[in-house]
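Researcher: Structure prediction, please.
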Amino acid sequence: MRRVAILIEYDGTDFVGWQIQGKGRTVQAVLESSIREVFGEAQRIIGSGRTDSGVHATGQVAHFDLRHSIPIEKLSDALNSKLPADVQILDAKEVPNTFHARRDAKKRRYRYYLCSGSRRPVIDRRKTGWTPYRLDEKAMNSAAQYWIGKHDFTSFRSSHCQAESPVRSIDLFTIERNQENPLQKNLIVFTVEARAFLQNQIRIMVGTLIEIGRGAEKIEWAKDVLEKKDRNCAGQTISPSGLIFEKIFYSDNYELW
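Model: Predicted structure follows.
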């Protein structure tokens, strides 16, 4: 038996999330089904992060054990041949049997892509959030710095969040307007890094920053919301469509991606 790590990309629009649930289509179930179909083995796959319904990934990492002797360089193509168009394996590597995709993660990076202004995104609507307001990205960036470090993020967790503790540590939070494509000058990118997040935390944070960006609240309001530890004080939970799980960081002991 050997352990395999895979790098996965998926469009989360038509999934109810990563993790297998009682009902609904999940990324985990689709991947496990492809393993059974290709290799004839019922193996449980463990992801590095449990993305919610509608959330995408370009850098999800998962591991599973495999008895089959297929060369590792052929594994991705073999599984991709049985996967749907909205899930693909980008790469695969053999890892030590002690490797665990979730527990060994040091940090996770998410990005939220938000189109601001009167025109809704069309071509990119499945992977971009939208607000009708013109936003001040500099004000939002200043506000987000109040959340850097270790805090009680009760104000930014879903009422259905099952985490034992609301305390998390944010390592990085930046907001920048897209400068690469002049046709996307109204696209704002929120980048957040932390070891772990609460359910809906990033989407609530972005919803809160929108209130500051459109001038409805002052920059210092971000600090007030954090200190009140009350979900009702924060902004809306913005659509999952713009949220992408981009990268997972591991120690140098594992030569991954």
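Model: The chain has two domains: 2-104, 107-247.
Researcher: Thanks, that helps.
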